[in-house]
Amino acid sequence: MRATQGVLMSASRWFLLTIVVLLGAALSWWFRPWAERSPSVMTSLMHPDYRLENFRRMERIFPYRLIPASDQPFVFVQAPGSLPEHFIHEGQQVAVSEFLERTETTGLMILYQGVQRFERYFHDATEQDRFTSWSVAKSVVATLTAMALKDGHIRSLTDTVKEYVPELDGEAWGEVAIEDLLRMASGIDFDETYDRTFSDINKLFYRTFLLGQPVRNVVRGHAAARPSGEAFHYISPNTQILAWVLESAVEKPVSAYAAEMLWQPLGMQDDALWSLDNSGVELGFCCLNMSLRDYAKLGQLYLQQGFWRGQQLLPENWVTEATQRPEPWLTAGHGYPERGYGYHVWIPKDPDQEYFFNGVWGQTVWISEKHGVVIAKTSVDPMFREHMAEVISFMRAVSEHTATAP
């Protein structure tokens, strides 16, 4: 009897010791005190207490590749203007100051005919901060794709993915045309629902950010739900695959191509950081971190139809083709009630020569060709979906105010 009790006590001690060791190993992996970054920090990214700081300090959370500021920085001429006190949304008057606070705005910049009319920062942000783009990065990848097309690195938008990424030959992705990636019409079966715990987009984040799996491996392998080129279905892997095509076409990392084709010729004033996965690949669908002023330059490039300081940087018809799509299934109501889509550009309902780049949490670069206005707004807005139509009303009101103010 005593021998049996001794065996049981010894087994219990070994069991408890095993549990302690495993728990210690798990905690060590989670916090990683020896490493610069850890899963524990990553999971705090969107926490209400930390996100204001995190969204302008992403280099503390993810590895990155530096895009250096231009050797010849371009500074907009300044002629200070003002904001309207109110704007109308759905028949109701909204105070601009209240709207900016409610949408947790961190930066707001307005250009009119290439002149800086307004620049202000909120919540302790400054002009030196690099604000994370979220899906505004998608528009940057599309812009770089246009440049690769202009320079002949990409032969045609009707080319398929497998022609540039042979690794995807035999997969559904390989048969998708580049244009269908740009139009979010790949037909690939992928669930982009953020509020479903185990949706495909959330599993992409878990596997890439927490488990450290290569992002390309994560987005591969999805089957086609429908033929490509027939319907709009917004999914982030379309841009990640497009970035893969781009890298293969230009034979350099996407961030290096951005440095050469955008940061240098546009005279970007500040370094940018493009977040990477653990294998060193840019997260093309998100996570380009840059200054508010340089966001505005991207908008101004589109306002000027791709022409910048004596150079035609984009194909001459690119902005028109990207923002005035003939497909009825790209119009507002085919995915989102208040906006339609182009080549990785959003088109508001009932557009009046206006379009915008947009990212979750309220990142917006608005271009009004009618008014000659560009507005860059960075935010940390948890209600960004609910506020989308109101943001459009605000942008339209500010554009008109800026263009008509004395």
Account of the 3D structure:
- By secondary structure, the chain is α+β, with helices and mostly antiparallel strands.
- The chain has 2 domains: 2-46, no CATH class; 52-158 and 253-404, DD-peptidase/beta-lactamase superfamily (Beta-lactamase), CATH 3.40.710.10.
- It has 13 helices and 15 strands.
- A 5-stranded antiparallel β-sheet has the order 5-4-15-14-13, with helices on both faces. A 4-stranded antiparallel β-sheet has the order 1-7-8-6.
- A hairpin with a 4-residue loop joins strand 11 and strand 12.
- It starts with a helix and ends with a helix.
- Mean pLDDT is 93; it is low at 25-30.
Q: What is the topology?
A:
Blueprint: H1 2-31, H2 39-42, H3 51-54, E1 64-67, E2 86-89, E3 92-95, H4 96-102, E4 105-112, E5 115-121, E6 131-132, H5 136-150, H6 178-182, H7 200-210, H8 215-219, H9 237-250, H10 254-263, E7 272-275, E8 288-290, H11 292-303, E9 307-308, E10 311-312, H12 318-323, E11 339-341, E12 346-348, E13 354-359, E14 363-368, E15 373-379, H13 388-404
Antiparallel strand pairs: 1-7, 2-3, 4-5, 4-15, 6-8, 7-8, 9-10, 11-12, 13-14, 14-15
